[in-house]
From TrEMBL, chain A:
The keyword Transmembrane applies. InterPro entries: CDC50/LEM3_fam. This is P4-ATPase flippase complex beta subunit TMEM30A. The lineage of its organism: Eukaryota, Metazoa, Spiralia, Lophotrochozoa, Mollusca. It is found in: Membrane. The chain crosses the membrane at residues 36-62, 316-338. Residues 1-10 have a biased composition (Polar residues). PANTHER family: CDC50, ISOFORM A, CELL CYCLE CONTROL PROTEIN 50. Residues 1-26 are annotated as: Disordered. It is a multi-pass membrane protein. Residues 11-25 have a biased composition (Basic and acidic residues). The keyword Lyase does not apply. Pfam families: CDC50 (PF03381).
Automatic annotation (TrEMBL), chain B:
PANTHER family: PHOSPHOLIPID-TRANSPORTING ATPASE (PTHR24092:SF190), PROBABLE PHOSPHOLIPID-TRANSPORTING ATPASE (PTHR24092). This is Phospholipid-transporting ATPase. The chain crosses the membrane at residues 6-32, 214-243, 263-288, 827-849, 855-876, 906-930, 942-962, 974-991, 1011-1033. It comes from the Eukaryota. GO terms for biological process: Golgi organization; phospholipid translocation. Keywords: ATP-binding, Magnesium, Membrane, Metal-binding, Nucleotide-binding, Translocase, Transmembrane, Transmembrane helix. The lineage of its organism: Eukaryota, Metazoa, Spiralia, Lophotrochozoa, Mollusca. It is found in: Membrane. InterPro entries: ATPase_P-typ_cyto_dom_N (IPR023299), ATPase_P-typ_P_site (IPR018303), ATPase_P-typ_TM_dom_sf (IPR023298), ATPase_P-typ_transduc_dom_A_sf (IPR008250), HAD-like_sf (IPR036412), HAD_sf (IPR023214), P-type_ATPase_IV (IPR006539), P_typ_ATPase (IPR001757). Its cofactor is Mg(2+). Residues 792-1040 form the P-type ATPase C-terminal domain. ATP binds at residues 336-338, 440, 481, 503, 537, 617-619, 740, 746, 769-770. PROSITE patterns: ATPASE_E1_E2. Mg(2+) binds at residues 336, 338, 766, 770.
Length: 382, 1140
């Protein structure tokens, strides 16, 4: 029963060991910044955001509009062998699966300044479907010696050759099997073929880290839809062959949305004719159409575009910035008006404050006398 | 369950790891916390269980722990020991095997009670050999919770003795003024009456817990709805698109090939998949986070130096760490009186002698001084009997005594003679008094300090020492106290002069005064009023000289009355009445039942906060009302309290109904002339006090009525048919005092309010008699630092003083509530914003349950990226500081109204979350659709897009948390900005080449694109601006009190940093103009007078063999037992017992 000993004796001090430490932390008195949303800070902030966003929006919009972009939807282009038939129709015939339907399109292009990229675009193509996304084996693509039996089961039904579990597909899975295999060539003025570069189109990190060729291709077969096995994708350049093939790498980076574009080729600007971009004029685009999409209401297109610091042509951000900036300005104005009106209703505010005097019973008089002072301060805040 | 689903690869869209990581973290933290909690609880229980008591085993006394005491053991108790079990008293040190016990722990009564052993067992005395051979058969009632009854039969030496409550010591009592006693254990452990009374320990959950469970069910339904939508949509998608898309993405082999059944099969599986990926709306980490926040908030309570009581070296302690936010929502406080509101110390404070009032210290000019530490005390050092603890500030009284003012001497002589106190000389020569009631002790000790020392008594004499001279009075008669008489007198003879000294309630004494002192009566009355208004207990003193013949005549009547068999008490009262008249008024005393420090302030402030306080006490009605006034629970402005003290169901109903009618009448007639009226208009809670009443009053239950109800009446009032009425009345009164209630009744009252009002209740008490209500209430607070531990052990919070309740509720409770509400609102927001992005994404991925984010992000989001800022917010946030929280008690009302987190607020958070998720998904969607990087590379791939949304999500939700934070300490800054920076760093590192994760290179590619940063800026602005606008609007146009006080706090801080913020109210005394109110209260029990005159409790014993044996009938009021003749002590003074 130590408690109750006199406070001033030294022993008493010793027994008082249960006293909590009087630190700022334990007493919840840490120095702190206590922001308050006042007119002084909020209104200027609104105007500032408005003032910053509107010019930014304009700049973005201008940038986006300066990008030259050409889109050609060739889903239903005519079969050059049989002008009465579209290529889409051609592939409705099951016998034609695996064949190529060539179609040629003459297009008038505006002038493209700077580096020009060629994309293929697909719509309604669900590269982001769960079963599609997981249907791959990253270890296999990385060149690790993955035995057929240890291939990712998510690759099914494109994992092992039907009826023979010891023979696998390289690469396995639905993504690889559905590799986009249309090809384009482009000729300027019916005479100058435009050189298309098929490297430098994939992410550097993908090409250097994620995709590597295995030491051998034992027990590996080409995926069913493919015309050639993976080790023959680009027989001319070993660095672009096998899993290192950039078309494959680009395709394997699945798109987030069912409508997407993927980089197909870069225009070779070392050609003297195209050193500043693409000249305006007539181009003949030849498409080797072998990828049917109409069965699931998909479309295909070929896109030529330049880039800016923002990337591709997309007015969305510019417009959004303009809208948000304007909204902030409008909000700022509305609140300023309210603020002014409210400023006239000081009486109310003062009253609630005055009323609180009653709450603080027995507070020294000097404190209460300060009330008017505070009211003025509050007014001053506005 | 979700976890198990994830193990099925068919439906799982996530690796099992994504659920395992948070699950393991959560389980680990919970386990650690529970272990710590359990350990602490055991530690406390062990303290009680391991208390030592002396048990007789094999003829030897050995120390045994409490929990090893068994039925049938014989225990020895020493003075001031706690009784360890329910005991049958075998023998005791005091004469006639009497022992005194204090039952404050049990029933709150402070006076001592006498217990007496059966004679046959008393012979065992402290002889261990005899004790160990003691063999008897004891037949008793089964364990029950009736404290005032015991029935049993002891068969000893082939004789039967009936046992009743007078022979039983109950666990929880304390042995007082008795050197030792032995007892036989009847009930031990849980069977003891105390434990039977303490009710079951229930697992307490807070209001918010229950709400949260409801919300979780709601969220789960919402989750199922979303999944159903996805399922149906998936079925549709698969049959229209997916079926045709099979050229590139064939259905799984087990899916039927037909279009309809195949789609349906896939859809059903997708339902489960969506349950898995959307289950993050019901975050596992929620409960753990809540627990952590509560734990930390409990630590703040433990660490608060302002809740630390220096004198007893007792800090406050949160014994339960799960109830903190409920402290911010208390609407009813049920408080014990003795030991909780009061210190259980009586001090002689003031007096009025012969029309002169003493007690208020004056300076030379006659101005009243405030009593403080520095006020000079009267110096009693001349008096060798003075006690150092006695404090008196008015030196005039001592001066008057020293100058020999006759009336003053008479006054103190009265005090020194008219009482039933027993003196005891300690071994070191110190004189100590054993008073049956603390009031009486205070009066006698006051007389002693002023030089009228009561030294010793025998059954027929009283020895006092006045200024060094011994005076021996012959004690002729004690006219004992009882509740009806409300007075006691002694008749003494000295030098042939017979004098009657009387003290009692003013109203009673004034009726019996001689007409000659009417002038003095007026003066004294005005003094009494003054005393009573300051909450002091007053007594009047009177005296009268008796002519010997008058006395002799009266004595005969008295003799006759005392041998009457029927209605002896009434007959005696009548006789007493005859002689106690025409007395001369001497003066009046004022005793302060010392309140604990700061109690009135705390109560006033809590009442201002809208908390209703009920006092439940085992004490008497007068005492309770008196304390009610002195602690300002009852105020002078109030109507006279309604007193319900009927003894039958009908009468109670009638009284309750009458009271209720009166209140209604007063209200309808618009008599809102005084008191606080609360206007609850919307969010602004302003308090208006005034007579004009021009403000709308929606809540008028704050009338100025008070209710006092008695234990007997409470029995009926708590019956199902009356409880509604009682509750209605109780809630229309501002203050309720229930007196003479049993521990169980306390619990029943709490339970009634808890059940019917749906409000949060808090019970506070210090003794074992409060355990039941402490356990029953939502929150139980125990006063610690006292000797008893029972209340503390049953409590959820313990602290040393009642006044700390103010800080506990208004500061800690309010903060905890605020923090918890902020936390929950934000947490739900955060998880909805996070999870629903998956739902929007479903529309673009063919409802295939593809996750938008990296699976690792999903598992880390709640634990690592966004939890810390909001946890710190939940630990440290404060809207206004503690000083302001106490100064503006109205800040507490949002908690009472449940305003900060309820279903509406929750829905609001959910809506905000849903809208945020829309913005979070569609802004990047718009910005990244068909875009590519500067060098033509793909940017709109799954991994990049997911990372973009994830990064924006982390930044935006953390900024949102920043917006909610109103108290930015270094910790907040650190975790807030730290979380964001950590996310970016972690992603960069984790997606780098070295790790070899499939997201390799994504972070670099995303973070190097301007598109991403523009998106981030835009989305965050879009998410933050509306919230800022809304908050700015409400805080400026319709500010809450909190907003205003905050603003004020800041102005104050910037304008006068040096100003002292300490505006605590100083004075507890309030003068008022209300008319007379009796301050009479006396915690006294009749019966001691007879003990004294019969000499039973005297040590010095008369040689009175020739007299017939003294019967104990007068003590026990039972004729069953007889005491044997008192032992003879050869050296004792020869004093004959004046036997009745």
């Amino acid at each position: 029963m130590a408690p109750g000993t006199p406070t001033d004796s030294p022993q008493g001090e010793k027994t008082k060991n249960r006293r909590p430490k009087d630190t700022k932390f334990k007493q919840q008195k840490l120095p702190a910044w206590q922001p308050i949303l006042t007119a002084n800070t909020v209104l200027p902030a609104f105007f500032a955001i408005g003032v910053a966003f509107i010019p930014l929006g304009v700049a973005l919009l201008v940038t986006s509009n300066n990008i030259t972009e050409f889109v050609l939807d060739y889903t239903n282009c005519k079969n050059s062998q049989n002008p009465n038939e579209t290529c889409a129709k051609f592939f409705e015939n099951v016998n034609n699966t695996g064949l190529i339907c060539r179609c040629e399109q003459e297009v008038e292009l505006p002038e493209f300044k700077g580096q020009v990229y060629m994309y293929y675009g697909l719509t309604n193509f669900y590269q982001n479907h769960r079963r599609y996304v997981k249907s791959r084996d990253d270890n296999q693509l990385n060149g690790q010696s993955v035995g057929v039996s240890s291939l990712n089961t998510d690759c099914d039904p494109y994992r092992t050759v039907k009826g023979n579990d010891s023979e696998g597909y390289a690469p396995c899975g639905a993504i690889a099997n559905s590799l986009f295999n249309d090809s384009y060539t482009m000729v300027f003025n019916n005479s100058v073929p435009v050189n298309l570069l098929k490297t430098g189109i994939a992410w550097v990190s993908d090409k250097s880290v994620k995709f590597n060729n295995p030491s051998n291709w034992d027990h590996m077969h080409k995926p069913p839809n493919w015309a050639r096995p993976v080790w023959e994708l680009d027989v001319n350049a070993t660095s672009n062959n096998g899993y290192k093939n950039e078309d494959l790498i680009v395709w394997m980076r699945t798109a987030a949305l069912p409508s997407f574009r993927k980089l197909y080729r870069r225009i070779d600007h070392s050609q003297t004719e195209f050193k500043d971009g693409l000249q305006a004029g007539t181009y003949k685009i030849t498409i080797d159409y072998s990828y049917p999409v109409t069965a699931f209401q998909g479309t295909k297109s070929i896109i030529l575009t330049t880039t800016s610091w923002l990337g591709g042509k997309n007015p969305f951000l510019g417009i959004a910035y303009l809208v948000v900036g304007s909204l902030c300005i409008i909000l700022g104005v509305i609140f300023s008006v309210i603020q002014l009106k409210w400023g006239k209703r000081v009486g109310d505010f003062g009253k609630t404050f005055a009323v609180k005097k009653i709450l603080i019973q027995n507070v020294p008089k000097s404190f209460c006398l300060k009330e008017s002072f505070y009211q003025n301060q509050i007014l001053g805040e506005k | 369950m979700v976890f198990l689903c994830q193990l099925l690869p068919v439906i799982s869209s996530l690796t099992p790891l994504t659920t395992v990581i948070p699950l393991v973290a959560v389980l680990l933290v919970t386990a650690i916390k529970d272990a710590v909690d359990d350990f602490q609880r055991h530690k406390n229980d062990d303290i009680v269980n391991n208390r030592l008591s002396y048990v007789l085993r094999d003829g030897k006394l050995i120390e045994e722990r409490w929990h090893k005491v068994m039925v049938g053991d014989i225990i020895k108790l020493n003075n001031n020991d706690f009784v360890a079990a329910d005991l049958l008293l075998l023998s005791a040190s005091e004469p006639n095997s009497l022992c005194y016990i204090e039952t404050a722990e049990l029933d709150g009564e402070t006076n001592l009670k006498v217990k007496q052993a059966i004679d046959e067992t008393a012979q065992l005395e402290d002889n261990h050999d005899l004790m160990s051979e003691f063999s008897a058969e004891l037949l008793c009632e089964p364990p029950n919770n009736r404290l005032s009854k015991f029935e049993g039969k002891l068969t000893y030496n082939r004789k039967e003795y009936s046992l009743d409550n007078e022979k039983v010591l109950l666990r929880g009592c304390i042995l007082r003024n008795t050197a030792w006693c032995y007892g036989l254990v009847i009930f031990a452990g849980r069977d003891t009456k105390l434990m039977m009374n303490s009710g079951k320990t229930k697992f307490k959950r807070t209001h918010i817990d229950r709400l949260m469970n409801l919300l979780i069910i709601g969220i789960f339904l919402f989750l199922v709805t979303m999944c159903l939508i996805c399922t149906v949509a998936c079925g549709v998608w698969e049959s229209f698109i997916g079926y045709d898309f099979q050229a590139y993405l064939p259905w799984e082999s087990f899916v039927p090939t037909s279009k309809e059944t195949g789609s349906a099969t896939i859809a059903v599986l997708v339902f489960l998949s969506y349950i898995i990926i959307l289950n993050t709306v019901v975050p596992i980490s929620l409960y753990v986070s809540v627990e952590i926040i509560r734990l930390v908030n409990s630590l703040w309570i433990n660490w608060d130096v302002k809740l630390y009581y220096d004198k007893k070296d007792t800090p406050a302690k949160a014994r339960t760490t799960t109830l903190n936010e409920e402290l911010g929502q208390i609407e009813y406080i049920f408080s014990d009186k003795t030991g909780t509101l009061t210190q259980n110390i009586m001090t002689f404070n003031k007096c009025s002698i012969n029309g002169k009032s003493y007690g208020d210290p004056m300076d030379e000019l006659g101005n009243m001084l405030e009593i403080s530490e520095r006020t000079p005390k009267v110096d009693f050092s001349d008096n060798s009997y003075a006690e150092p603890s006695f404090e008196f500030y008015d030196k005039h009284l001592l001066e008057d005594i020293q100058s020999g003012v006759k009336e003053t001497e008479a006054f103190f002589r009265n005090l020194a003679l008219c009482h039933t106190v027993m003196p005891e000389t300690k071994k070191d020569g110190r004189l100590e008094y054993q008073a049956q009631s603390p009031d009486e002790g205070a009066l006698v000790s006051a007389a002693r300090n002023f030089g009228f020392v009561f030294k010793s008594r025998t059954p027929s004499t009283i020895t006092i020492e006045v200024n060094g001279e011994t005076e021996i009075y012959e004690l002729l008669c004690i006219l004992d106290f009882n509740n009806v008489r409300k007075r006691m007198s002694v008749i003494v003879r000295k030098d042939g002069k017979i004098t009657l000294y009387c003290k009692g309630a003013d109203s009673i004494i004034f009726e019996r005064l001689d007409p000659s002192c009417s002038q003095l009566k007026e003066l004294t009355l005005s003094h009494l009023n003054e005393f009573a208004q300051t909450g002091l207990r007053t007594l009047c003193l009177a005296q009268k000289e008796l002519q010997p013949d008058v006395y002799d005549k009266w004595k005969e009547k008295h003799q006759a009355a005392s041998v009457t068999l029927d209605n002896r008490d009434d007959a005696l009262d009548g006789v007493y009445e005859e002689i106690e008249k025409n007395m001369i008024l001497v003066g009046a005393t004022a005793i302060e039942d010392k309140l604990q420090d700061g109690v009135p302030d705390a109560i006033a402030n809590l009442a201002l906060a809208g908390i209703k306080i009920w006092v439940l006490t085992g004490d008497k009605q007068e005492t309770a009302i008196n304390i009610g006034y002195s602690c300002r629970l009852l105020t002078e402005e109030m109507e006279e309290p309604f007193i319900i003290s009927a003894e039958s169901c009908e009468e109670v109903q009638k009284e309750l109904q009458t009271a209720l009618d009166e209140i209604k009448k007063a209200k309808t007639s618009g008599r809102n002339d005084v008191g606080v009226i609360i206007a609850n208009g919307g969010g602004g809670q302003a308090v208006y006090n005034g007579t004009n009443g021009h403000l709308p009053t929606q809540q008028e239950e704050y009338g100025d009525f008070a209710l006092v109800i008695n234990g007997h009446s409470l029995v009926y009032a708590l019956k199902p048919e009356l409880e509604g009425l009682f509750l209605e009345l109780g809630c229309s009164c501002k203050a309720i005092i229930c007196c003479r209630v049993t521990p169980l009744q306390k619990a029943l009252v709490v339970d009634l309010v808890k059940r019917s009002k749906k409000s949060i209740t808090l019970a506070i008490g210090d003794g074992a008699n409060d355990v039941s209500m402490i356990k029953m209430a939502h929150i139980g607070v125990g006063i610690s630092g006292q000797e008893g531990m029972q209340a503390v052990l049953a409590s959820d919070y313990s602290m040393a003083q009642f006044r700390y309740l103010e800080r506990l509720l208004l500061v800690h409770g309010r903060w905890s509530y605020l923090r918890m509400c902020k936390f929950l609102r934000y947490f739900f927001y955060k998880n909805f914003a996070f999870t629903l992005c998956h739902f929007w994404f479903a529309f673009f991925c063919g409802f295939s349950a593809q996750t938008l984010y990296d699976p690792y992000f999903i598992s880390l989001y709640n634990v690592f990226y966004t939890s810390l800022p909001v946890l710190v917010l939940g630990m440290l946030d404060q809207d206004v500081n503690d000083d302001y929280s106490i100064r503006y008690p109205k800040l507490y009302t949002p908690g009472l109204q449940d305003a900060l987190f309820n279903k509406r607020k929750f829905l609001w958070s959910v809506c905000e979350g849903v809208i945020s998720s829309l913005i979070l998904f569609f802004i990047p969607y718009g910005a990244f659709l068909y875009t590519h990087g500067v060098s033509g590379y793909d940017l709109a791939d799954m991994q990049s897009f997911g990372t973009v949304v994830a990064a924006i999500l982390v930044v935006a939700t953390n900024l949102r948390c920043a917006l909610d934070t109103s108290y930015w300490t270094g910790f907040n800054h650190f975790v807030m900005w730290g979380s964001i920076i950590y996310f970016f760093c972690f992603i960069l590192a984790f997606y780098s080449e070295g790790i070899g994760y499939s997201y390799v290179g994504v972070a670099l590619s995303v973070f190097s694109s301007a598109n991403f940063w523009l998106c981030l800026l835009l989305t965050c602005t879009l998410l933050i601006v509306p919230v800022v606008a809304y908050r700015f609007y409400t805080s400026n146009i319709n500010p809450t009190l909190s907003d205003k006080v905050r603003l004020r706090q800041r102005i104050k801080k910037t304008k006068s940093r040096s100003r002292d913020l300490n505006f605590r109210r100083q004075s507890t005394m309030r003068r008022s103009t209300r008319s007379m109110r009796s301050g009479y209260a006396f915690a006294h029990q009749e019966g001691f007078g007879e003990l004294i005159t019969s000499g039973i409790n005297m040590r010095e014993r008369a040689e009175d063999k020739h007299k017939e044996p003294v019967t104990l009938t007068k003590i026990t009021r039972h004729d069953s037992t007889r005491s044997k003749p008192p032992p003879v002590e050869p050296n004792s003074n020869i004093v004959f017992v004046e036997h009745l």
